[in-house]
Structure formats: C-alpha cells, structure tokens
Specification:
CATH architecture of the largest domain: Alpha-Beta Barrel
Bound molecules: (2R,3S,4R,5S)-2-(hydroxymethyl)piperidine-3,4,5-triol
Structural class: alpha+beta
Strand content: 25-35%
Low-confidence stretches: none
Number of domains: 3
Number of helices: 13
CATH class of the largest domain: Alpha Beta
Largest sheet: 9 strands, antiparallel
Shape: globular
Radius of gyration: 27 Å
Helix content: 10-25%
Oligomer: single chain
Number of strands: 35
Distance between the termini: 42 Å
C-alpha cells in the first residue's frame, strides 16, 4: 500500500502487488495524477480516504450522517498519524462538524490488510451516523466481480460478472450474516482463475447487517468498499461518545483465487487461539439427523457404541435436550435439562460417552426464545421488537434481545450453569432465524445485538477456557470474518448431500481454512435432497474439512462400518497435513468434474479428490493435474482405497491407480488419467514423496 498525506488529506495512492522499490514518492504522485478534463473541477481531485463532497468527490462517500440536519457535509483533515511496522494509525478531525475519526490500517505478515476505525462526536448535540463504508482503490485492470450468494442448504454459490458503471452492491439486512452473505467481495481481471491472475478482495469482519460495494465512476475511477449497514437511527452518538465501526479485512493476490485463500488461511492459522494450534480437530459425530427431537438415553448409547467402534472422538447431542423441547415449537429460552427425556440429567450419558474415550458436545440457541417457554412467559418484553408489535414468527421463534442486560445475564447464567455442571468440551451454537423489526426500546439494535453475542462467547470462553464453540445458523448463515475470532468451527451447511457440499465447501473455503469447516458423512439416502450416494463419495467429501458423521451409524451395514473405521483412521493420520497444508483447486477443463486437494507445506505429500459431478463430455475424462508439489521430487501416486470403492462405468481401470512414480513437474503438467466414474462418484488420490 502507498499512502499520501498532502495538505492534510490522507489518500491511498496504491493497493496491490508488493512493490519492493518504489522510486521517488513524489514522482509516483505525479505519475498517477490525472489531467484536468473538460467540464470538471479546475484542479485534479484529491478526495482522500473520506471521499467527501466538500472536496468535490461525487461517488459514494465514506461517512454519511448529520447532526439534526446540520453537519451533513464533512471535511476531515489529517491532524496526526503514527506509523510502526506495518501499521498506520491516522487521526482525522473536522472542526466544523465536530467529529473525530481514528482509523488504522494494519498489514499482517500474511498479506492481510485489516482496517478499523472509531468515530467520536466532539460536538454538543447528538450526531446520527447513517453509514460508514471503508474504501480501497481498485486497479483499472480489475474488470470483473466475483461474489457469493445462496439460501438455506445452498450457501456460497459464486456469481461472476463484469464491473459496470455505477455501484454494484450486496446488502444484508437480516441482522445475521445470512445464507446469501458474500464472505468476500472479489474484484479481478477477466482472466483470473484459481491458479493465476490478480484479485482484490474485501470482507466485513462482522456478523450483523453489512454492505459490500464495487464502484466504477464515470471518470473510470474504481473502488471496492464495505461497511456495516445501519438501520435509520441505529447509531446516534451523544456528545463525547464513539461508534466503534466494525472493521474490514482486505486481501490481494497475484496468484489467482488460490493465492487469496492461501493468504486468508495463513493469517487465520497464525492466530495463537486458532483451533489447530490448540489441538487436532476431533472426529465428530452429531446425532441430529439420527434422532432429531426423539432423545432417549438407550438410543444415544447405542449410537455411542457404534461411534466408539468407528473411532469417533467427539459426540454431540443436538437440539431437543432441554425443557419442553420435544419439537421446534417450544422450549427455546429455557436452558435446563428436561427430566422428561433425561430423567438422570445428562451426567450418565456423558459418563457413558466419556468412558469410551469420546468427548461430549451440546447444542444451544441462546439468542432465541419460543413464545411457548417459561422465559417468554416471564419476560415477553425481552424480545427484539418495535412499538408494541411482536415480529412475525420464523421457525416458531422470536429473537431474544441480548443487548438487554437482563436477557444477556439470563442466557449467560443458564448456559454457564450447564457447562459448569457437566463435562462439555464443545457447544454448537445455532441461530435459526433472521432479525425482523429488531428494536430495543424504540431503537434499531442489530449492531448492539451482534456486539452482545461476541461478548457472550468471549465470556463463556473466559469462564471455560477449554470450551470450543461452533457457529451454526440454519447451517451456514453465520460464517464470516468477524465471528471467526470467537468460534472454533462453522457448521458449513444443513445440506449433507455430498454433491451439494462440493460447491458449498469449495467456496466457503475461499476464506475459511478446512479445519474450521464441519464436513460430515451424511446418511446413505440424503435427508435434504433424497439422493443416494456411495459411502466412498460421502467419505471423500467429508475428509476435506473438520470431519464428522451425521448419520445413524447403528444402521450402517458391516461393510460400511469397516469403511467408516478405515476412513476415521485415515482422517486421523492425515489431518495434520490436511489442516495445515495449502488448499489447491485445479482449473479443470471439464466442468462436469471438480479436482482439488491439499499439498503439505513442505511438499512431502498431497491428497486430491477427483469428483465426477455429471457425465464426462467425452468418453475419457480429462487428465487430472496434481499441481503444487516439488517439481524436482519424485512422488508415489495412487488411489486411496480406505474410503471404499466408487461406482465406475468401465471395463478396466487405468493402470496407475495401483501406484506410479512421477515427478512433481510431471504431475503438475501431465497428471494422471482418472477412471470413468459414474456421476456423483469420486476418487481420492495420494501423492507421497519417495526421494
Ligand atoms: C439447524 C442446524 O443447522 C442443524 O444442524 C440442527 O442443529 C438444527 N438447527 C436443530 O434445530
């Protein structure tokens, strides 16, 4: 990044590829300055990072707000800055508007740029913030936008389109991150793909409402921006108070989309509390799809027996354990064990599970309340609402206003009591509805609600230092770079169909490393899509993440149990590599197949999946390249049999499946010929260095 501070205006002259030697900074300014065109301001514009009308900037501004209709136009001046290592902290002040902004830019060692700001009202009357958007300049050669959309069970599907004149925006107004949230807004050249080309990405580090923009003005200037989306009157700063503006995370790559992922993954993995820095990711079994609300100790014990035989390391009791929760119409809000289904409390089932060497995990949805609950009967005023309306029900529930101290303490107290009484290693924390009409005492409260859940998670972890938290929201509706700091795992999607998961996991993995993404082997006949898949296909899909099982394994036949056992052992043997290596997605020439994998950081080995989604376009599948290995080293390459056999449409296998020795260079440029697989089948390919 190159900043300029000139006549008290702070500008970003450049953001992109690392430039080791810049030359004369003044000459850079001269090189990028535009001519004065006809019908324009008399001098070239320097709108600075605040993009203000008062400096003749006519695009989307950084700050919008007013003080009772006044101070609607600002002119911030840079009054001070400090610069240490890769961090710049700038102080900007507007005397007339009586506002002060502190903004910091921090470039991490992994190439991630974090931007945060605080706006303070220095005036004597309230100041209403309408919006604050962080902006970064985009190179002219960025011509396309890639972002993500989706819905329940269909999260993070890509959409790629040209950058056109005007503002291209993605808004989230549902008060949680959302199934259609674009985990990153990516601008790129027309030729950028997984393995090459430039990409500039920006993401909110926030789980509430958000907006992501790409702007191209009539003069050709392009920018990428993101900010918290505020409801009217949501942030009104009393004199002397501040708005801690949710921050953004920016990322640049000149090695394609895989380069972006490499930066995100390395940055997250460098955090001391990153889950793999604490311990390997335990093989997990969640009983949700096995029993749903039909909790019964004997059934759970039988599942635990089968789980232990397979080698499961953590077992999770999902929704249905607490007061009156026999279905989804009652109970949310009352976080006490229901003696009707657990007459002995949870102690005996936890002991049974722990005695088998398996940890225990439990489900909560603490930000919610059913009207049919003791909590709601006692405190109907503790819901997010406006006027005297009750918001429309969604999955029969309302949103508890945890920005209300009483409600916050209630949830914290009850959850803490359960965690203190029992040996619980992990909680799955759900959030199954959007926030409609989400007011607190007459003021929109989505910002405060979001800040409150971050606080609550941090407090639970402070009280229970070894506790792990999974962020779930009807599947993957709360996966973002804000909550990532207070949770250890994401439930990627409610859709456990291995075919659907290919796309969902591929694109969630653009920013989130695989060790944080829950990927489970679902039932033979998928509950969401009713498709039937070979166990090998489901097992290969699930190994590329924080692996688990979401299937009543007591129903698995003997052959399937043997495969599950081998697969579990394979996961344990390879998770160190899978959860630290470099994620690679190959730009495969046939759109009917996906080819992807993980290469060990020391290039000693790799695991790749070749996944046949639909029938090949031609008789023989296109060669499967295995890039990213040491070009000069020799690798033993073979198909891994521990996941069971795929269904194939051929008389004879290609001979290499049993093992061949090829160089990293040959694997990257020639590859191996996949067998002719039936659609919705896959093979797992291993490459192991032998010299
Ligand atoms: C939605 C989650 O995504 C599921 O995994 C499950 O926990 C249910 N909620 C429970 O109600």
């Amino acid at each position: 990044m190159v900043f300029e501070a000139h006549e008290q205006v702070l500008s970003i002259l450049y953001w992109g590829r690392d430039i080791e030697v810049l030359g004369d900074p003044g000459d850079l300014k001269s090189a990028v300055t535009k001519s004065v065109s006809n019908s324009s301001t008399d001098e070239p514009l320097t709108p600075g990072i605040m993009r203000e009308h008062s400096r003749s900037f006519l695009g989307h501004p950084t700050l919008s707000g007013h003080r009772g209709g006044k101070a609607w136009s600002t002119q911030f001046s840079l009054v001070d800055y400090s610069h240490q290592g890769n961090t710049l902290i700038a102080q900007l002040h507007d005397e007339a508007a009586a506002l002060h902004l502190e903004i910091s830019y921090h470039l991490t060692d992994e190439g991630i740029l974090k931007i945060n700001a605080i706006l303070t009202n220095k005036g004597e009357a309230d100041y209403s913030v309408d919006q604050f958007v962080y902006w970064l300049p985009l190179a002219d050669r960025a011509r396309e936008i890639l972002d993500f959309t989706g819905r329940w069970s269909h999260e993070r599907h890509p959409q790629r389109r040209p950058i056109v004149s005007g503002l291209s925006s993605r808004e989230i107004r549902e008060g949680r991150t959302g199934h259609d949230y674009t985990i990153a807004q990516i601008a790129m050249t027309s030729s950028t793909n997984f393995s090459g080309g430039e990409a500039w990405a920006l993401s909110m580090a926030w789980s509430g409402n958000s907006v992501h923009h790409v702007e191209r003005l009539a003069d050709g200037v392009q920018s990428i921006g993101a900010g918290e989306l505020l409801m009217p009157g949501e942030i009104i700063l009393a004199p002397g108070t501040s708005y801690q503006i949710p921050g953004v995370v920016a990322n640049y790559s000149d090695t394609g989309l895989d380069g972006l992922s490499h930066n995100y993954h390395s940055w997250l993995r460098a955090r001391p509390h990153h889950p793999t820095n604490v311990r390997p990711r335990p093989l997990t079994l969640n009983v949700w799809e096995a029993v749903y609300f039909a909790h019964d100790e004997e059934t759970i014990k039988k599942i635990a027996d089968a789980a232990a035989e397979i080698g499961v390391e953590r077992m999770v009791l999902d929704d249905g354990w607490f007061h009156d929760r026999r279905h989804d119409r009652a109970g949310l809000g009352d976080w006490v064990v229901d003696p009707a289904v657990w007459p002995n409390g949870l102690g005996s089932i936890i002991k049974y599970i722990n005695d088998k060497g398996i940890e225990f995990g439990l489900w909560f949805e603490g930000e919610m309340v059913n009207p049919d609950s003791d909590l709601y009967r006692a405190h109907p005023e503790w819901i997010l609402h406006e006027a005297d309306r009750v918001p429309p029900l969604w999955r029969n529930q309302l949103v508890l206003d945890i920005s209300h101290p009483g409600a916050y303490e209630h949830v914290l107290g009850q959850v803490d009591a359960v965690l203190s009484e029992y040996n619980i290693a992990y909680i799955k924390w759900d959030h199954n509805r959007g926030l409609n009409d989400a007011g607190h005492l007459g003021q929109a409260s989505i910002h405060n609600q979001t800040a409150a859940i971050y606080r609550l998670f941090a407090e639970l972890k402070r009280r229970h230092p070894k506790l792990e938290i999974e962020s779930c929201a009807s599947g993957g509706a709360r996966v973002d770079l804000g909550i990532v700091d207070v949770v250890d795992r994401f439930w990627t999607s409610d859709n456990n169909d291995a075919l659907e998961r290919q796309t969902i996991q591929r694109w969630t993995g653009i920013a989130i490393p695989p060790e944080m993404l829950g990927t489970h082997i679902g039932p033979t006949h998928g509950h969401q899509t009713a498709r039937t898949h070979e166990i090998s296909f489901r097992a290969i899909n699930a190994i590329f993440g924080h692996a688990g099982i979401e299937w009543n394994v007591t129903e698995a036949n003997d052959e399937e149990r043997v495969i599950l056992k081998k697969w579990a052992a394979l996961y344990k043997a390879k998770r160190g590599m899978l959860h630290s290596g470099r994620a690679v997605r190959v730009d495969h020439p046939d759109a009917n197949a996906f080819l992807y994998g993980v290469v060990a950081q020391d290039q000693s080995e790799a695991l790749f999946a070749y996944v046949q989604h639909r029938m090949n376009e031609s008789n023989f599948p296109a060669m499967a390249l295995i890039p990213g290995l040491d070009p000069r080293a020799t690798y033993e390459v073979k198909v891994v049999g521990d996941v069971g056999k795929p269904r194939a449409l051929q008389v004879k296998n290609p001979p290499w499946l049993k093992g061949v020795r090829l160089s990293g260079a040959a694997l990257a440029s020639i590859g191996v010929r996949p067998p002719i697989l039936a659609p919705e089948n896959a093979i797992l390919i291993s490459a192991t260095r032998v010299d």
